[in-house]
Write a structure and sequence with these properties.
By secondary structure, this protein is mostly helical. The protein is built from 12 helices and no strands. The protein has a domain at 1-71 and 183-248. The chain is globular.
Length: 248
């Protein structure tokens, strides 16, 4: 029987890695590194390889949520706690900006007070939390065979026609994509995949996918194809993560 009460320090390590990856991603993309005209040759390969390795950050967070949710009941206080924390820090940051920056636009102030559109992940995560009581009731009684069929179908759709906007996966920035990843984490815990599959497999697949993505990005650059789409494509394709080493 799987022990759901004892603390798993590997999960803490996975969270730390995810947070580091989030910081790395924002430095690479929003920091202007990936699209710098000076990014050529080896520097291009290194920067995009780091991007490919770190792109699993949000996916890993969602999978951890699913992994930890197995055998636990849902409490609405989780949503309330998240909302309170987001409002607190949003107001603190807004206050500091108003104190040290005098030319804040009214629109920015309103967004800071009511940060509904400011944090996409928080919005999606709250949506995920609202769906979980119903979804977990539906999946917790599934056999491994049926769960595999459901999960396999969702993953195949997500990495193929899921790129079409009307499927609402929104390049991996949506409630539905987080829900699929939640199912992945839940499945891993429920059926003990980490105990049955050697960690070497996860690590090899993880780096292999990162290398394949890098190759595609290099080819796109060579033939002048817009490879911005690779960022969103990676969000939905980097499912293989070195979980076995981090959660055991």
């Amino acid at each position: 029987m799987i022990n759901t009460s004892s603390r798993n320090y590997g999960i803490d390590i996975a969270r730390i890695l995810s947070m580091f990856f989030v910081v790395l991603l924002h430095n690479l993309l929003q920091g202007g590194v990936l699209h710098s005209p000076e990014l050529q040759g080896v520097n291009f390969a290194v920067a995009w390889f780091l991007e490919n390795l770190a792109i699993i950050a949000v996916n890993l967070f969602a999978m951890i949520t699913g992994f930890l949710s197995f055998g636990r009941s849902f409490h609405v206080t989780r949503i309330v706690s998240i909302i309170v924390q987001v409002l607190f820090w949003s107001w603190v940051i807004l206050a500091l900006l108003m104190l040290f920056k005098s030319n804040l636009a009214l629109k920015d102030i309103i967004i800071g007070i009511i940060p509904v559109t400011l944090y996409w992940y928080i919005n999606c995560y709250i949506g995920l939390m609202l769906l979980l009581p119903f979804c977990t009731e539906g999946i917790k009684s599934l056999s491994q065979h049926k769960f595999s069929l459901v999960l396999g179908s969702l993953l195949i759709i997500s990495v193929t026609v899921g790129f079409i906007r009307h499927f609402s996966l929104d390049d991996g920035l949506s409630v539905f994509w987080l829900l699929i990843l939640f199912f992945v984490g839940y499945y891993i815990r429920k059926f003990g995949l980490l105990e049955r599959i050697h960690s070497t497999y996860f690590i090899l697949v993880y780096f292999l996918l990162a290398m394949i993505s890098l190759l595609v990005e290099i080819l796109c650059k060579k033939y002048h194809i817009n490879y911005d789409i690779m960022i969103s494509a990676n969000c939905k394709n980097k499912l293989a993560t070195p979980w076995h080493d981090t959660v055991r």
